[in-house]
Design a protein that fits this description.
By secondary structure, this protein is an alpha/beta fold. It has helices at 58-66, 96-100, 104-121, 137-148, 164-169, 191-195, 215-231, 251-265, 283-286, 303-306, 320-335, 399-408, 412-417, 419-423, 434-442, 467-479, 484-503, 517-526, 552-555, 558-563, and strands at residues 3-13, 16-25, 32-38, 45-46, 49-50, 70-74, 125-135, 152-158, 202-207, 238-243, 349-356, 359-369, 372-381, 389-394, 449-453, 509-515, 533-537. The protein has 20 helices and 17 strands. The N and C termini lie far apart (68 Å). Strands 1-2-6-3-7-8-9-10 form an eight-stranded mixed β-sheet, with helices on both faces. α17 (484-503) packs across α18 (517-526).
């Protein structure tokens, strides 16, 4: 009786479909304020057909329309009528998302911006009175979109905000899919994003028993953002709402949100006459597309392949040195920004030495960065001067146990020396003669010193949780503006510095060898360290296959790095 629902679709980019329901009050006599409502994670699916999470959150649109607002509720990428992917890192092992600099949060924010364009085109809408809200995932999208688009005059992110301490230290990341997080190139904590909304009115809403947005982190965010609002003399435009309850869409959260919008979009500070928000439609009534309707041009299911462009790479180089310098600057700014700003002491420490048939193996410990202590292993002739040929071989997860099997070939002396390494790993059967091959290599005219480099996450620093736990550890790097492979490049650089200190031979000929993804790690380390020779086996042809470095495909790909 009091409103109409229009079922609509739009394309925020060609083929990127957004499905939504537009709730319009009847009998409007003037342009009305509008709300963009973005949905959290709610699966509404029957017989394999997705109806979109807009159908689950319909009661919000219903209330707004009954109370004089135009309200557009839109589906999210993953849980919409055309189902994209939010869980590329969380579940699907699409680690190349990191190399592309892609996050589904970017798609959600872009869709929100384009929906503001649409709302402003509607004759019923006052284009200068637009608000945005949503809970859980919708709270996060509200936060990002309002930070990016100043046409959003009022924001109420509900259960979508907390800080890095909660996510990384307190394990909250394990409760969130990838759509909650920006690509944190510039290493911001989340209050900095929220501060971009200042001084526009914003109500930060949460419940006190929300396990994925804990209260302590929410209050820390609010305290920091409050300082920014005070600098604007706009402290009255920032609110903090804490209600009792779990991570759930409750009336206790809804009513203050409705009043906040009334206050700042309608200049109405009075009590609500009707605070009920009901679901009155069946999902079938709110579905935009017919159940079997196909859209051959849709890119929703492959947005991760198309949404972020890769670098446009030159085909000829009139000024190669200038191009190389430009790439190096972009790598520093966009890819390896997460490296430590200052070199910490190596704190090099000799751990043990073991001799075997004229070969001496020595283990060292060094600090790659504060809190990250790694080992490297140096093989040299037991007697005689160290030659100037220093070969560093970078381990990966597959080579480490095979190398230990070779070590065990050295008998009791080596087993005692390497007891920690051998005890912590399942070792394949020893390969007789393998250790002798290393010894023979040392004493050839092209011999010298061999160093085995073991980056973080391999060998003694390998994470020992189940696959899901280890996955979440890898996801933490992104929140810190890093990737595991990017920090392994740093580890190899620090291993080179440690080796120079150990060997101490001026003008030594350093060679770097690795295979597979670690060959890519060694390649990038060689861009920053003087290396005489690279031996790269099975180097992936593209960062799509690894190594996974933040944003790298926005700058260049493996062939260009190799050319450098």
């Amino acid at each position: 009786p009091t409103y109409t629902v229009e079922k609509l679709q739009l394309q925020s980019r060609p083929g990127l479909y957004v499905t939504g329901d537009l709730y319009i009050p009847k009998n409007l006599t003037a342009k009305a304020p509008a709300i963009l409502y973005v949905c959290g994670h709610a699966l509404v699916k029957k017989d394999g057909v997705s109806y979109g999470n807009k159908t689950f959150y319909q009661h919000h649109g219903e209330w707004f329309a009954r109370n004089g607002y135009v309200c557009l509720i839109i589906d999210s990428l993953q849980l919409g009528e055309i189902e994209g992917i939010h869980h590329g890192l969380y579940r699907e092992k699409m680690w190349w998302w990191l190399s592309r600099g892609y996050t589904p949060a970017g798609v959600e924010a872009w869709n929100g911006i384009r929906c503001i364009d649409y709302l402003q085109s509607r004759p019923e809408v006052d284009p200068d009175r637009i608000g945005m809200t949503g809970r859980s995932g919708g709270g996060a999208y509200t936060w990002y979109t309002a930070a990016l688009d100043e046409r959003i005059k009022v924001a109420v992110p509900v259960a979508g905000i907390t800080d890095l301490q909660n996510h990384i230290v307190d394990n909250c990341i394990e409760g969130h899919c990838d759509c909650m997080f920006m690509v944190n190139t510039y290493r911001w904590d989340f209050p900095m994003v929220a501060a971009l909304i200042a001084p526009r009115p914003m109500l930060i809403s949460n419940s006190d028993k929300d396990t994925i947005f804990p209260l302590d982190g929410v209050t820390r965010v609010h305290a920091k953002v409050r300082d920014i609002y005070r600098l604007y003399n706009a402290a009255d435009k920032l609110g903090l709402l804490i209600t009792e309850g779990p991570h759930k869409d409750t009336q206790d959260l809804q009513v203050p949100a409705f009043r906040w919008f009334n206050r700042f979009l309608k200049n109405d500070t009075g009590p609500l006459k009707d605070a009920t928000a009901d679901k009155v439609f069946e999902p079938e009534q709110l579905k935009v597309f017919r159940p079997k309707e196909l859209h051959a041009d849709q890119i929703n299911t492959k947005a991760h392949d198309l949404f972020v462009p890769t670098a446009t790479l030159p085909t000829s180089f009139d000024n190669w040195e200038g191009q190389r310098d430009a790439w190096m600057n972009e790598l520093k700014d966009q890819v390896f920004r997460g490296w430590p700003a200052n070199l910490s002491p190596l704190n090099l420490k000799k751990l043990f030495t073991a001799d075997w048939r004229a070969m001496r193996m020595t283990a060292y410990e060094y600090g790659s960065e504060p809190g990250v202590v790694l080992r490297l292993y140096v093989a040299a002739p037991a007697v005689g001067a160290t030659t100037k040929s220093i070969k560093l071989r970078v381990m990966d997860e597959q080579l480490w146990p095979l190398w230990l099997a070779v070590i065990r070939d050295g008998g009791d002396a080596y087993e005692r020396a390497f007891s920690t390494e051998l005890a912590a790993n399942p070792i394949p059967p020893a390969r007789n003669g393998s250790l002798a091959m290393i010894r023979d290599e040392l004493i050839t005219p092209d011999g010298g010193t061999i160093v085995w480099v073991v980056p973080r996450g391999i060998g003694l620093t390998a994470w020992t949780g189940d696959e899901k736990k280890n996955n979440h550890i890898l996801r933490r790097f992104e929140l810190l503006g890093q990737t595991l492979d990017g920090m392994r490049v740093w580890d190899v650089r620090r291993a080179l510095a440690a080796t120079r200190e150990i060997v101490g031979v001026p003008g030594a000929d350093y060679r770097l060898a690795a295979r597979g993804q670690m060959a890519g790690v060694a390649l990038y380390a060689s861009l920053y360290e003087p290396i005489a020779r690279l031996d790269l086996a099975e180097l992936p042809s593209s960062h799509r296959q690894g190594p996974y470095l933040l944003n790298v495909m926005r700058v260049l790909d493996t062939p260009q790095a190799l050319a450098m």
